[in-house]
Each structure stands twice: as structure tokens, then as C-alpha cells.
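R.M. (postdoc): so does anyone remember the format we settled on? I'll just put the C-alpha cells first.
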């Protein structure tokens, strides 16, 4: 199932979240935005959606780097909460779904 959110006008980053993603996980802001624009696999994250709807995404950058991101939508902008490389389990899930989409 493809998650589609209409009317978005850009990205928003909290400085602390951006620094954590970059310093701790080695994922640049531009890479995360690129992955989110490359038709990632997205779903609602019910475990972290108490105050506002949160989403998680698995996708790849133009260079093929596989990333995980969590985000929410605020004022028509994607507000990235966290970004990091996919775990081994997430890579397996992503690959399986991509194969199913192709064939």
C-alpha cells in the first residue's frame, strides 16, 4: 500500500534532530530529503502517534544508500524526526517488497 500525502510544500527540520541524524548516524539532511522524494515505502507508526500522526519510511537515495526515516506532517511540511541507515531486518523487508513490486 502506498501512503500518499497531498499538499506538501517542503521539509522542516528541528536542529537537534538534524544534528543527531548527521552526527550519530552519518545521514545528511539532503540525503534524507532525497530518499523521501524517491517514492519510499511509508506507513503510519502507531507506537509513536499519541500526540500527532507519525510515519516511518524505508527508501534509497539516488546513490543507492538505504535509509530509514521517521517523520510527521506540520503545516504542510514534512518534519523529519529521525534518519539513519536501515537495519539488517529493514533492508530485508525493503528488498522483499521491492521484488514484489517488480514482479
Amino acid at each position: 500500500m502506498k501512503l500518499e500525502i497531498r499538499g506538501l510544500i517542503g521539509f522542516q527540520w528541528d536542529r537537534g534532530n538534524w544534528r543527531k541524524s548527521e552526527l550519530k548516524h552519518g545521514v545528511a539532511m539532503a540525503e534524507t530529503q532525497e530518499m523521501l522524494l524517491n517514492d519510499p515505502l511509508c506507513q503510519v507508526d502507531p507506537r509513536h502517534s499519541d500526540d500527532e500522526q507519525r510515519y516511518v519510511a524505508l527508501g534509497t537515495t539516488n546513490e543507492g544508500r538505504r535509509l530509514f526515516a521517521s517523520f510527521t506532517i506540520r503545516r504542510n511540511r514534512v518534519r523529519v524526526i529521525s534518519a539513519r541507515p536501515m537495519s539488517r531486518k529493514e533492508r530485508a523487508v525493503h528488498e522483499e517488497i521491492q521484488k514484489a513490486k517488480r514482479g
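R.M.: ...and that's the designed sequence above, right after the C-alpha cells. Also worth knowing: The chain has a mean pLDDT of 88. The CA atoms of residues 46 and 54 lie 7 Å apart.
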